[in-house]
Predict the structure.
Amino acid sequence: MLVQSSNILMTSQHLAVKEQTKSESLRLWIGDRRPDFEGAEAGRPQPARDRVDLSPQSRNPAQLHDNSNQPVRSRRKEDAEEQSDPMSRFVSILMELLTGKKIKLKSVEPQGEPVDPQKAAELSAAAQQPQQPARAGFGLEYDSRETYLEAESLSFSAKGVVRTADGKQIDFTLDLSLQRVFYSEQSTSLRLGDAVLQQDPLVINFNGSAAQLTSTKFSFDLDTDGSDEQISFVGPNSGFIALDKNGDGRVNNGSELFGTASGNGFNDLAAYDHDRNGWIDDNDPVFSQLKVWMKDAEGKDSLTGLKIMGVGALYLGDINTQFDFKTAGNESLGTLRASSVYLNENGSVGTLQDIDLTV
């Protein structure tokens, strides 16, 4: 081929993104009831920073141990017990790290009067009655989350006209694209004392309703440690999205739900987004295997395929929608963390929600 003349136009576009995020929160309180940290933060803008929340009592631990009107044991014995009590020592060290001040938590024993036999018998009878588990008198919640995203795309296009010496004219258009995405996430949660651990299965809601949690508890191995926890279940118009990995027709433990290990159900589900279009749909092999785990009024389980329920696609994007579910006695059932949407085959829309269940 002998090129006589040509007119070529080439364009390219390159995009590269690297994003790393890290968040930590530490909440500590001393007392029998967890303060409403979330309520105190509502409506208050929070700059990006590490966060430490202390209850009013834990900000001034000395007030918890006012022994001015009570006889105490010798100072030497008291100091020895401070060193031998691991929990007091732990709280002291933690408070010193947070406040930068030397803190000592004193254990005070008032000199009580002898108890008469009748009162002793009453106390003994009361002790034989069923009681709630003893509370630790303090709580600590630590959570950290670190994410890393790396994405790169390249598009190249060329078009032109080439004329050869023998009179031929060649018109062409050429397009080429490359792309890659890497995402990783690490989460750590620690609960001590009266703090309760929450784990978040992914919930799908039907009939236009939002998720609700039952006050009735059910036994289920949510954290896949071989032991059952007592958890609330979602209401009659909702269900947990499940993947029956062993094909036995039932949800055996939390490993067959989304979010119970990582703490983020949407991220767990996104791992199955085969074509990386931000949806779990018919292009993804897992879609035909996804089920909805529901319970009826009698607590009987049902496991039904998403496609049978008329669901067409699950959107993987989510937004923070925090809301606490509590009993009439203000006991925690769980916390709504994030929400998203899904499409039905008939074109209607429903909601997906990531709910932390209190265990």
Observations:
- Confidence is low (pLDDT under 50) at residues 61-83, 107-112, 126-133.
- The two ends are 76 Å apart (CA to CA).
